[in-house]
Amino acid sequence: MRSKLNCSVEDIYAYTIERSIPLSVLFELTYRCNLRCGHCYMVDRGEAELSLDEVKDILNQLAAANCLFLTLSGGEALMRTDFFDIARYAKAKGFALKIFSNGTLINEDIAHEIARIHPLEVGISIYGSDAASHEQFTGMPGSFRSSLHALRLLKEQGVFTIMKCLLMKGSVAHMNEIRALASEVGAILQFDPIVSPKNDGNRTPLQFELDDSELHRFFSSITDQPQTMGQTDRPSAVIICRAGRDTCSISPIGMVYPCVALPVPLGNLREQNFNKIWYGHKAEKLRKLRFSDLSQCVSCPELSFCTRCWGLATLESGDHLGPSYLNCRIARIRHRISVERAETDLEEVTHEEALRTP
Amino acid sequence: MLKQYVCRSESTVYRIINGVAIVVAAPEGKLRTLNKVGTLIWQQADGRHALVDIIDLISQEFDVAYDQAVNDAESFVQELVDKNMLELTDSPVLGG
Question: Predicted ipTM?
Fold first, then answer.
């Protein structure tokens, strides 16, 4: 009768993937944002965003479909004046909530309200180690101080906070300062080295992407994980990723996507209910894809160093089964780092042996 | 403990998938699954049921000796109380 504590999360994920249960959903509540980030992937096509009643109806459908993890995001989700109506409703429907925000609208009262809904985590975006480096990307003076203040306020309220740091041109050199900043505000730091095109394929954000030497520096700094992905060859039956299998995203106008990074529309919740979309023809077709369908990637010599994202591949070339040039670059760099480390290890061993030689 | 009312903590959320409760407690965020009996206790832990009533239900639903059910249920509930996932009250929780 005892609880199976620390049970295998893999078992749960295997079950939800096998049964296509949408365990995790990211819900973009609005396109609106008070920042003007040049790297933002969102494209506002001017359509009316979902009303509170529409959002509540969708949350009912997601709960019935057994969605457990719900991330409320934007734009800037707190731009919606009904944000807490949505968040409290979601909480009452039994979702494990995560909130992504830029933090600039979070004052003491809002931090308190957030704490009252017991989110699993609140992720706040920070792009640099100081105001100048952060605000060159956000375009809003004072945003660095406001975002950091939000992290501190949330921490004081006992909220688990994540400092989400998208690494862009110039910021890799300041990773240590950013680490110190996260530590100072009591947040877990998550670096992300991948700048993606906008959702319509517009490549403007790529002006901020890391060059090869910056990617090398970033991946070299990861010393607690191997550069390889743990698989030297992926059997043909292996699924490509969890997008559309136990996770999906919903846009501010109700469009369902397999993932926030994969702009392949599955259907609109203003026209069809969630189950009809999720178990519909487009989603099922996507779920049938296997790694063996990626004709170029499956025979690539860098395969074991690659974290191929089919969203990136789609945005870069329009071909969701083709390679992603950024993932290819990263795989080559991780391979090089792996070789460099092996050579360093060999040199150290040789040096030690020389010392032991009488 | 037997006469006390069992209530799920506000910081927990759950879903029943394949007859099994999958529970997440904030802010820790760790997923936990409960077995069939644990799931029944969890579902009944709405603040309106005393533990003794839940044990009666377990005895009806599962092939288990009553004393064994009492011991297991008490230790299970205590374990989750210690983890701030369940709460015990002396009277029913209004609106629970």
Answer: 0.81
Q: Residue A68 burial by CB count (10 A; 0-12/13-18/19+): exposed, middle or buried?
A: buried
Q: What is the pLDDT of residue A236?
A: 55
Query: How far apart are the C-alpha atoms of B8 and B81, rounded to whole Å?
Result: 9
Mind listing the pLDDT tens digit for each residue in B41-64? 999 999 999 999 999 999 999 988
DSSP state of A293: G
- The partner residue sitting opposite B15, judged by closest CB among A5, A68, A121, is A68
Helix/strand/coil for B87: strand
User: Nearest CA to CA, how far is A119 from chain B (Å)?
Assistant: 6
In this structure, the dihedral spanned by the alpha carbons of residues B49, B51, B52 and B57, taken in order and rounded to 10 degrees, is 70
Number of H helices, E strands in chain B: 3, 6
Considering CB atoms only, which of A1, A16, A21 is closest to B37? A1
Q: Which residues of B touch A154 (CB under 8 A)?
A: none
CA distance B13 to chain A (A): 5
Q: Whats the size of chain A, residue-wise?
A: 358
Which residue in chain B has the smallest CA separation from A117? B11
Q: What is the pLDDT of residues A181-202, one digit of tens each?
A: 999 999 999 999 999 999 888 9
Instruction: Report the residue from B13, B27, B76 with minimal CB separation from A3.
Output: B76
Q: For residues A218 and A312, what is the distance between their CA atoms, to the nearest angstrom?
A: 20
